[in-house]
Specification:
six-stranded mixed β-sheet, alpha+beta, about 40% helix, three-stranded antiparallel β-sheet, 13 helices, globular, about 350 residues
């Protein structure tokens, strides 16, 4: 595992302050090649993959086929660019591109179901039937783990005015979020009743102590109420329900029977229970009382996409599905639309 951002000296690659995915600090550019699940900086992405394979895994890229996960709502041009980078810059012998939703489903051994993903940059609700994504029934939410970390930091600063901003670097805030935050099963009730707050105290490395109360359950609440961060989209349970409504009635019950949760932002205590409560309430309120939902929440769901990819690529039946270098050289990057769509 490695960070998806990287530091680059300004003389190595000039970066404009307004460039997408980049921020400047002291003559050093920090490149963030992925924003909300979409690659926005392919030069940085090339460096990231090269660092992963050569420096991290210590393998020769030209000797290994590569499976790449792709956001369900990412533009198809991104897959063409990824193929170009893999074959021309990293010279891999073969590649395959699969939706993160499908790989998350595969991690549970299923090929049909509803994948509900909440990661660092984006959330998705994607119906999958017989291994194929239902693109027109896929919904996304741009509130995810990174948004929650920024929101959590704002909450902490608001409740501790004496706390200096430099005392809460991103790494510390993320650590606090993962360790202390949880999802409320009755948000309005918990907000109105301080006696129900699960208070905690956390000492920072500089000796300062942070006292946490309602911030612990207010932090992940935008996943269910994006309006708290001024996002107009409905919450993740509503998006999941809308995705089910978009598919044919004869398949709805089958997919509802396998609602797979995936991504690090689904790991908050109480997340599974809240999703289940809200989905059941939506079914009752909107005229689908007979629809039985079964949530699948495995302990390792934070890395479900990687697990599903490793399982898929290991199957003997999968080996004929690689796009080879010979195919790429004959047809070019446009072939990915036929091979993987």
């Amino acid at each position: 595992m490695l960070k998806s951002s990287s530091l680059m000296p300004s003389w190595d690659r000039p970066v404009l302050p307004e460039a997408p995915g980049c921020e400047l600090a002291g003559g050093v550019a920090r490149a963030h090649p992925i924003k909300h699940g979409v690659v926005v900086d392919w030069d940085a992405m090339e460096g990231l993959w090269e660092r992963l394979m050569v420096g991290g895994l210590q393998v020769h890229p030209e000797q290994w086929p590569v499976l790449v996960s792709d956001s369900p709502s990412a533009p198809p041009e991104g897959r063409e660019k990824a193929a170009e980078l893999l074959f021309e810059a990293l010279t891999v012998p073969a590649c395959h591109m699969a939706s993160t939703a499908l790989l998350a489903l595969c991690s549970t051994g299923a090929f049909s179901g509803l994948a509900v993903e909440a990661g660092a940059g984006v959330c998705h609700a994607t119906p999958i039937y017989a291994g194929h994504s239902w693109q027109k029934a896929t919904f996304r939410l741009n509130v995810a783990g990174s948004s929650l970390s920024r929101y959590f930091r704002d909450l902490l600063m608001a409740t501790s005015p004496d706390l200096q901003p430099q005392a809460l670097p991103r790494k510390t805030v993320t650590h606090l979020k993962k360790r202390c935050c949880y999802v409320s099963l009755d948000f309005q009730g918990d907000i109105c009743n301080p006696a129900r707050h699960r208070r905690a105290c956390f000492c920072l490395s500089n000796g300062c102590c942070v006292h946490l109360g309602s911030e612990r359950f207010r932090c992940p609440e935008p996943l269910f109420q994006p309006s708290l961060l001024d996002h107009p989209e409905p919450g993740l349970p509503t998006l999941a329900f809308q995705a089910l409504q978009k598919i044919p009635i004869k398949l709805r019950a089958r997919l509802a029977n396998t609602v797979v949760l995936a991504g690090g932002s689904t790991l908050f205590p109480g997340f599974v229970e809240r999703m289940n409560l809200e989905l059941e309430a939506l079914c009752q309120r909107l005229g689908h009382p007979a629809l039985k939902l079964c949530l699948v929440a495995q302990p390792g769901r934070g890395t479900a996409v990687w697990t599903g990819g490793s399982m898929m690529a290991s199957l003997q039946s999968f080996q004929c599905r690689w796009m080879t270098r010979a195919m790429y050289e004959e047809y070019g990057p446009f072939l990915v639309r036929k091979v993987f769509d």
